[in-house]
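During the no-cost extension, the postdoctoral fellow (Dr. R.K.) reprocessed legacy sequence entries with the updated structure-token encoder. One reprocessed record is reproduced below for audit purposes.
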Amino acid sequence: MSTIQVRFLIDREQRRVVFAQAGSDFVDLLFSFLILPLGRIARLLSKRSGLGSLSSLYESVERLDAKYLQTEACRDMLLNPWSAAAELCEALKIKGIHELNPREFYTCSQEDCLIQSICYYTYSSKCLCSRCGKLMDRAQQWKKSITDDGGVFLTHTTDFIITDDLQITLPSFREGLSLFKQLQIKDSSVLEEQIIEFSTKKALKLLGRSFVSKNALTEVCFPDFCVQTSGDFSLSCKEDIVADEAKNDQINLELILNKNDNKVLYAEVGDDFVNQLFSFLTFPLGSALKFLSNTTFSLGGCIQNLYSSVESMSLDYFRLEICRNMLLTPVLPTFYRIKNQILKLEEMKSTTLKNFSCAKCFSDNRSKSCASTKCIHGITETEYIEQNPKLSAKSFGANDGGFVVSARRFMVTDNLHISPLSLISAACKETNLPISDLIRREVCLDRTRVLSLLTAMLTSKATLTDVFSPKPKPQRRSQNNYA
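Re-encoded structure tokens follow.
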């Protein structure tokens, strides 16, 4: 198993990391967190993540009956979301965080489909062929198109300084002195160098702690130094975001609350709200942080410092401008966008492949290319078109772009557990409250609340309450003269 050596400067007296110094292979690993879809983060960290209601939302997809999904491939898209930059991360030194084989794709194995001049491919192992309706289960691989030219996102030209809260800068005496002053370190005798081996396990732990801690490196690499802490988060928002909201980009839902404390017990919602929630699982982390960077929303940990480090770093240290753009503005894979997504997110264009071997002969492992010599099937050129995983032979051309079927009602609990709406389940819900204590409230989901929802999902177990029924902030006492 590959590891990366990282040099740490620690303060023995204060029992904390002052900073780490590492090459681009380690910083590439940290920056690669930004292209991870939130659903993959939930999968990697599992229930140990401590990321608010994200795990509950992920488990809802696992448990939801297939009849409520457009296709079984929709479940696969949410539980195993693809990254549009996955192929680039093959060159990372530490494996196991991104897709194991980002070049793997699937085609139909039925002969009637294989001998056509136009064939279909998909990256989802659960996708149905839009021509015959059978499972596209023949696994194949694209040829590797990237070369090892010295890095993933960054060049191999220099080392970097990584602070305890994951701010990344170039090494300089000015930065060092500023950091010593900030940490109130006056005597170098309290400083000590240590070398830590970073493995996949430690990298995943760092990813998890970065969402909730301001001292992520200390907590991961020197757990005996400190007690793990969790940061606070804020759901306030800039006024200009509210002013720019489009009234037609809104979703209505009904809340059932405890009138005594205004805590949300559950919400009755339509497929539009569920699609908004499920789409969060497909969001690259960098896209979520980009949305939040334009507001006063905060996750409370230090993960946002990774994003701001990319923003502030000179383009000279990136291999290509496109590498920097992948981190700052990651896009969704093809067909992952939903039709009425309130937070607009770009989607990469579908790729059509030509001059590929005849699909039938290719599947029979014949070595001769049918593109250059006419084969027994009479095919001289085959086009491979990417199949929309949300479509099946029955629904081809009729999908509204969502993951769940339309005109359905669902019940969403405070921690974002989603299930089909059932009056029996709602009546038997273990609230331990008299019915007279329950109240109904109609609310509207707009852009501001979607941003709030995204933030609360990653930080709170009471997501709906924090977004739709937050506790009023305590009023400051007046400092007038007392009589």
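Confidence is low (pLDDT under 50) at residues 231-246, 364-373, 478-483. The CA atoms of residues 148 and 317 lie 17 Å apart. The remaining legacy entries will be reprocessed before the final report is submitted.
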